[in-house]
């Protein structure tokens, strides 16, 4: 069983993120959430599955491609049996238009690298226009100055960046073909541009997957995350 430990590195950005979510709550979205909660409790009490409302949060796969070869990832390791590709804008718009009144949170990732989709910024912007909280999970290799500025301007709410070590050797043991310095520089760039623009979004969360080869680096990784400008450090 996986246990996640979360450390807040910047309370200012953490609370700004919380208020951002609360600001997006409408009567329709709150009502939908209550229906979902009611469904769960009714099902637990009666032993019969009852389902009311629609998901308050959901994921779309903006990209089913990846630039890394992580051994436990079915996309990176080449074990993905379903069709690979990129989500088109028409499909994304359709999903948002069907869910925007009752859903709050959309994740633009699943089993691929979101930045490989050239329409990613447009998707984030469309979610923002429809007052939805948006998040992506990335391996961090595409956080150039332009990409960082684009996702900030589009209104991305949260970015989760995988960083499983504090040295190239430890990092690439799992993130095959990954470049540790490229990722850390990208995180630093994103934090710097966010600071220059004087905004609190996106919340920058660094995720550290624990293995036998890197468990001794957890404390130093948390320290590094803070130095790079991250707001949250998560250990799984």
Write a structural description.
- It contains eight helices and seven strands; from the N terminus they run βααβαβαβαβααβαβ.
- The mean pLDDT is 95.
- The chain is α/β, with parallel strands linked by helices.
- The protein is globular, with a radius of gyration of 18 Å.
- It has a seven-stranded mixed sheet.
- It has helices at 11-23, 27-46, 89-99, 120-129, 145-154, 168-174, 180-197, 218-228; strands spanning 5-8, 57-59, 105-107, 133-138, 158-162, 203-208, 232-235.
- Helix 3 packs parallel to helix 4, helix 4 (120-129) runs parallel beside helix 5 (145-154) and helix 5 (145-154) packs across helix 7 (180-197).
- Strand 2 (57-59), helix 3 (89-99) and strand 3 form a beta-alpha-beta unit.
- It has a single domain, classed as TIM Barrel, CATH 3.20.20.70.
Q: Which H/E pattern describes the elements? A: EHHEHEHEHEHHEHE
Kindly report the name of the CATH homologous superfamily.
Aldolase class I
Number of strands: 7
Q: Mean pLDDT, rounded to whole units?
A: 95
How many DSSP helices?
8
Assembly state of the chains shown:
single chain
**Overall domain count:** 1
CATH class: Alpha Beta
CATH topology: TIM Barrel
What class do helices, strands and sheet pairing give? alpha/beta
Amount of helix: 40-55%
CATH architecture annotation? Alpha-Beta Barrel
Strand content: 5-15%
Radius of gyration: 18 Å
Main sheet: strand order:
1-7-6-5-4-3-2
Largest sheet: 7 strands, mixed
Uncertain residue segments: none
In whole angstroms, how far apart are the ends? 10 Å
Shape summary: globular
């Amino acid at each position: 069983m996986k246990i996640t430990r979360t450390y807040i590195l910047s309370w200012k950005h953490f609370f700004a993120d919380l208020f951002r979510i609360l600001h997006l709550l409408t009567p329709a979205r709150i009502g939908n959430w209550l229906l979902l909660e009611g469904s769960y409790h009714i099902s637990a009490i009666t032993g019969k599955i009852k389902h009311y409302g629609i998901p308050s949060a959901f994921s779309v796969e903006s990209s089913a491609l990846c630039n890394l070869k992580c051994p436990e990832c079915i996309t990176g390791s080449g074990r993905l049996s379903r069709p690979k590709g990129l989500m088109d804008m028409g499909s994304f718009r359709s999903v948002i238009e069907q869910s925007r009144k009752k859903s709050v949170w959309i994740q633009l990732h699943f089993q691929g690298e979101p930045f490989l989709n050239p329409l990613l910024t447009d998707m984030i912007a469309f979610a923002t226009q429809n007052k939805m909280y948006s998040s992506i999970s990335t391996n961090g290799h595409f956080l150039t100055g332009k990409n960082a500025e684009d996702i900030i301007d589009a209104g991305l709410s949260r970015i989760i960046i995988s960083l499983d070590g504090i040295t190239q050797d430890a990092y690439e043991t799992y993130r095959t073909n990954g470049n540790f310095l490229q990722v850390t520089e990208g995180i630093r760039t994103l934090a710097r541009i966010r600071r220059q623009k004087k905004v609190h979004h996106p919340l920058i969360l660094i995720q550290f997957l624990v293995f036998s080869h890197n468990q001794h680096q957890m404390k130093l990784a948390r320290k590094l995350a803070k130095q790079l400008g991250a707001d949250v450090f998560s250990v799984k």
